[in-house]
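Message: A physicist's question: would you kindly supply an amino acid chain plus fold tokens?
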Amino acid sequence: MSKTALLFPGQASQYVGMGRDLFEASDKVRSMYELASKELGADIARLSFEGPAEELKRTRFTQPAILLHALAVLTLLDRDVPRFDYACGHSLGEYAALAVTGAMTFDDAIRAVVRRATLMEQACRQNPGTMAAIMGLGQEQVEDICQRASSKGVVIPANFNSKIQIAISGAIPSVEEAVTLAREAKAKRAVMLEVGGAFHSPLMEPAKVGLAHFLESLPIAPPRVPVVANVTAQAVLEADDIRRLLVEQVTGPVRWFQTMNYLSGAGVTRIIEVGPGKVLSGLARRDMQLEHILNLDTLTDIENFRALSGSKG
């Protein structure tokens, strides 16, 4: 029997103007933005809708902005959220997956991501680093390149986005060396990324410590539907495991390609990407055998979905 997975995007999916139509359509959505703004000490609605883009790119703002967008879509769908068998999210998107499955309340997911984003931005200042994208080389090749480049500092594979698209992360000199080695190894592309730090690497250790402390007191319940964790690319069903894996995720790689393999093996042939952009559905289109792909980003997307499904909202 064909199964469905909800996917939630992560950092780099943001765009100026994201979520404005959702915000204007719902008092509940506006309340979520107000909570996030209070927690942040900044107007996240204004930044999301008006920019500037450079400010919206800051980790402290990007992460809650993307989460809020996804939660806004779910809030407007309300009882019309499509039936699904699995949920997963790329990096910060995992918090939206936990929220839609009832493992966290929407408000607690917002509080957690605001804290996570703030801690990660602080870690970026404490331990400066960067990332690069390598395309056209396999996992073993990239791991070997990182090992060789590590003589100049920390560098590890950070995002396994597809079979041949891997992001690496670490200290600036070592990431630059890895890019040089990847080009020598005939990578189709090896480029430095414009990011604020070395995400999903050991350089994020200060954020990991702070997040672990915060999550100790955050209520987490077993999800009603399995959530596929970034760290393991396996379904997680226990609250203690969720808490532990969210902490490990800060310094561990995002195993997204492996997550897609897990979903395929579980019989998933329909995916619904909830939130800004179409990054994850693009990766799934390339690496999964799918019967149906749906993106729910805007109010129009929601209205079209309701019209097709015959729901009156």
In short: The chain has 14 helices and ten strands. The mean pLDDT is 96. The chain has two domains: 3-125+202-309, 130-193. The longest helix spans residues 106-126.
